[in-house]
Amino acid sequence: MEAEVVDFRVPVESNKTVLVWDIPPTHGEAHIHAQLHAVFSSFGPVYLLKVSPNAPLHPPGFYALIKFFSAAHAAAAQRITDGRPLLDDLPLKVKLSSKQTPHFLSGSSRVLSHAHCLELANHVLGFNGWTSDIITLKKLTNEEEGEEEEGGGAGQRRLKFGCVLQLRFPHHGQTSRGAAVLADCFTCTGPDVFLQRCCRLQRLVREKALVQAFSSVLLILLGNGKVMVEVKQTPDQFLADDTEGVLQVNEFSWTEGPADEEEADDAEWALTVS
């Protein structure tokens, strides 16, 4: 029985990428995106779908890039849709990407975002196929109102929260834990601002811990349509009794306006189609 292992990392392999050509300029990019997503997401969870206009020297129209998490899903989508009327009853060219994965991306792709982790897990396992439980969520700053930043001006505050979270996969008898610590420095102009920052940082640290927990999870897609779940054993695996030590050393910084994953996707998109 054939099987494919899918992890919670950004797919970079060319055999997971499908290219669509000869899309007529009858509709705008948003309409084309919605139509293609409806078609290709029926084959499996889609990490990325981008629609772009043809180059100036080419006939008017569009092309699209679709990234799947699974190479098997990408191959099935290409085989079944190539030459079929997908938009306005016009046949489109659908091919697997022949672009080689850059050496600096091969085997070192970054972990998925929180939203993509949820999307992949829900699509493959179902909404009842996994649960998450917070083991610890605590404030790590010393003062109740937040630490005053050393050398900072009046109203400068520093918040730090730590979270340890556990994933459970009840149908597979597997669990995975993740931990994160996030810090935020800001100018506090009132209690409402401080409360908003607390709530936001708590949400972000929970999401970061969930992403780390998913990073150890492997989804094994079997040829008969069934799914198995395995958890990688890594040196940083820890038990519930270890949470204090984990929170002390497992720290991430967070600042206003970080580069989001869509910007990274744009760079990867340029690498793929250039």
TrEMBL record:
Residues in RRM domain copies = 16-99
Q: By its UniProt entry, which PROSITE patterns does this protein fall under?
A: RRM
From the UniProt record, which GO molecular function terms apply? Answer: RNA binding
The protein's matches in SUPFAM superfamilies, at most eight in alphabetical order, are given as: dsRNA-binding domain-like, RNA-binding domain, RBD
Q: Does the keyword Membrane apply?
A: no
Is RNA-binding set as a keyword in this record? yes
Q: What keyword terms does UniProt attach to this protein?
A: RNA-binding
Q: What is this protein called?
A: RAD52 motif-containing protein 1
Q: Which Pfam families match?
A: DSRM_RDM1 (PF25517)
Question: What's a single GO CC term here?
Answer: nucleolus
PANTHER family reported in the protein's UniProt record: RAD52 MOTIF-CONTAINING PROTEIN 1
Under the heading InterPro entries, the entry gives: DSRM_RDM1, Nucleotide-bd_a/b_plait_sf, RBD_domain_sf, RDM1, RRM_dom
